[in-house]
Structure formats: structure tokens, C-alpha cells
Amino acid sequence: MITTVTLNPAIDKVCATQGLRLGNVNRMESVTNIAGGKGVNVAKILRQYGYEVAALGFIAGYSGAFVADYLRTIGVATDFIAVSGETRVSTNIIGADGYTTEILEPGPKIEEEELAAFLAGFAEWLPKSELVVLSGSVPQGVGAHIYAELTDTVNASGKKAIVDTSDELLVNAAGKKPYMIKPNLAELEYMVGRRLKGLDAAVEAIRGLVDSGIGHVLLSLGEKGVLYAKEGAKEVLYAKPPKLKALNTIGCGDSVVASFCISQLEGHDMEETLRRAVAISATAASLPGIAESDKEKAEELYKDIEVRAIT
């Protein structure tokens, strides 16, 4: 069982248009509503690969019911705390030029008793869980130490915490030595407090995080690939995705997290873990939806991905 935590889930409203002009009427060519949020995306991908998944967090109103109902239809066990208000809608406007504009709502406000109820339920899922994914933003009323607290709880239970978030949420959680973190370059720069110019600087930074006690660091570099550092490994591995036409890059980082979970359960070595993460993420980018996968296409891409060791 892999348990995913999405404290601030969303309906991802994907709008396609020829172009977006500020201060003008913009007509969309198509609109699709998809259950989303980073942990929800991870759960969706894992179910596409046949793994048993539970989804925890907060939901509110009609939007929240939409998210929970969708997850149940694809076989995800759900244990959300229902709160007042409305689960957010994240509007993603995709232009014909490939650029995406995101408009993100804040989500509902969480009261102290609602957070306490979530924490109690979270603890009950740990004995059933092999991996616990903590990812995404947090709603109003939830502090920046929440993922640090949850990582502490996971570590104390002997299970493995995988963290994918940003800013102070990520910095605080990293201080608790999670099993894995997956920052992008901007998030890594925030963590280390400086600009990182070039691959060598990024390698040095993620090595430092592993040396601090974090088990695995996968650094997402977008179309430039992924760097992977692991505790006890002398080399950092680098893989670049093949050239593909990207139709929707939203959720590609979540694909990396889901793929890492699969590799941990299947016992893949470091090189195979990285190659599969890049293949599944690149496949997701080449498909029109969010957090979609095509196992046959990913397998074909996997064969063509080269991994380079950086000493």
C-alpha cells in the first residue's frame, strides 16, 4: 500500500485556446475538468500501473466530492476529512504555442479540530503503508511545519516518507530527513539559498542534501532531465528525456514521484529507477491530460534513455 497525502486537492480545469490576451475576452476551444493536486496525481499514476493506493487529505463542497468520487472510481481508497467551504479549482490555460498559464485558488480554511482529525486518521493508515507520499501546497489554516510533523510521524513508525512540496514546507520537512525529496531547480535554489548555475552546481547541492541525511534526492530539471543522488552512492546519475512534443507538462513531476515509488516496491537499482522516472514523466508530458500514462509508450522511451554518471 502506498498512501498519498494531498492537503489541498483541486479540480484541474484544463482550457485550450489559440492564445491568451490580458484585458480581452478569451474564448476557450475546449475545457476539461480533472481531479488534481500533487498527491492525487501520484495516486492516479500508481493506479494506472496497478498498485494499491490510499488518498488522504481535506475535501470541501461539490469540488471536493468530485475529487473523492473520481478517486474511488479508479480504485483508490479514500479517507478525506470533509470541511466547510469549497475545494479549489486550478485553471490551466494552454495556448497553441505550448505555454501554460495557471490560475490557482487558495482552497478552504482548515480549523484546528479538522487538522486534529486528519492527524489521527493519518496515524491509523501508517501500519498499512509501505511508502507515504506528502506532496503539494497546503490550505489556509495549516502551518508550514505540517510536512515536517508528518515526516517525523512516518519516520517514527519505521515507514518511508517521500516529500514533494516547496518553499518553507520543503525546507522544514527536509530537516526531518525524509526518505526522498523531489525538488525542481527553483525549489532547490530556495533550499540552499543561492542561484545554481549549471549542472555541476546542482550536483553539488543535491549531494549536500544527501550528506545531511536525506536518503534520495531526485532533482527535476524539466526538459533538461533529472539528477539523482542517493545516500551511500559515490556517483550522481543524470538522464535526459528524448525529444518529444510536449502537450501538457502539468503533473510531470508527480509522474517522477509515482515512478520512484514503483521502483522502490520493485527493488530497482539506481540506474533503472532514474531511467523509468524519466520515461514515465516524458510520456506524461506527451499526452494531453494531467498525470496520464501509457505503459507501452513509456517502455519504448525507457529503452532509449541514456544515464550518465557524474563523479
From TrEMBL:
GO CC annotation: cytosol
Residues in Carbohydrate kinase PfkB domain copies: 11-293
Keywords associated with the record: ATP-binding, Kinase, Nucleotide-binding, Transferase
A GO BP entry: small molecule metabolic process
Transmembrane region(s): none
InterPro entries listed in its UniProt record: 1-PFruKinase, PfkB_dom, Ribokinase-like, Tagatose/fructose_Pkinase
Taxonomy, superkingdom: Bacteria
SUPFAM superfamilies reported for this sequence: Ribokinase-like
GO MF terms, alphabetically ordered: 1-phosphofructokinase activity; ATP binding
NCBIfam families (alphabetical): 1-PFK, pfkB
Family: Belongs to the carbohydrate kinase PfkB family.
Family annotation (PANTHER family): 1-PHOSPHOFRUCTOKINASE, 1-PHOSPHOFRUCTOKINASE-RELATED
Official protein name in the record: Carbohydrate kinase PfkB domain-containing protein
Organism: uncultured bacterium contig00017
